[in-house]
Amino acid sequence: RTVAGGALEISEITKQFRGLRALDGVSLSVAPGEIRGIVGPNGSGKTTLFNVISGIYPATGGTASFGERVLTGRRPYQLSHLGLARTFQNLRLFGQLTVEENLLVALDRSPMRSLWRYVLWPVGVWRHERVLRREAAELLDRFGLRDFAGAAPKSLPYGIQRRVELARAMAAKPALLLLDEPAAGLNGQEVGQLQEIVRSIRDSGVTVVLIEHNMGLVMSLCDRVTVLASGGVIAEGTPAEVAVRPEVIEAYLGD
Ligand code: ADP
Residue range 137-146: average pLDDT? Predict the structure, then answer.
């Protein structure tokens, strides 16, 4: 698959919470097919940036666009139709549903499905169901979840639950995937598996932006890294470049 969607362009984004300016004119540009890391001390604005890009908070100022599509000013469900998917720091899976059902719900909402087909052609409803089940099976295989298809997510080890969340995000067939601390709570082996999964997602044509505190993972996985501090970009470059910048080291010393 070729890279879909174009570049992510974030231009002069600000976000004000009452007295606090959480983002203060953040600009960055992510190339199609890149894996971009967003790092920075606690409170530097990383999650707020994701929340603004993904439509959870309106921006106070500035714009974000993905290829031709303007992202800012839209609601999360509209952004999902524009090819954006994200995960959260805390898992947000449906606890009453099985792993497979969590994927089916996400697949059924994916923008490739068009209702008018079923209106014109009732057999299509039955077909639709079959296609969804096949796609769910593909996702289960791809993410190593086949053995857990019928399980309740909460009954599974945390590392598996995180994989379910990634699979669910991919069910929406995004062109741009935002991952908020995907390695949090994972053991070393699981971090290794995560790295392989994220690479394969990128290789399938998806642009990936991840917030991550695990510097080992950032160093080996990310093409480029943007460093935030106090709501502004203080450095950007390859992982090796930014790791030795004095302003980056200084920002982390106070953390
Ligand atoms: P990071 O993800 O880098 O740790 P955040 O984006 O979570 O940082 O937070 C940046 C700043 O914005 C912090 O000072 C935080 O307290 C503040 N903040 C984040 N969300 C809200 C909110 N909904 N209301 C008020 N302040 C917020």
Answer: 94
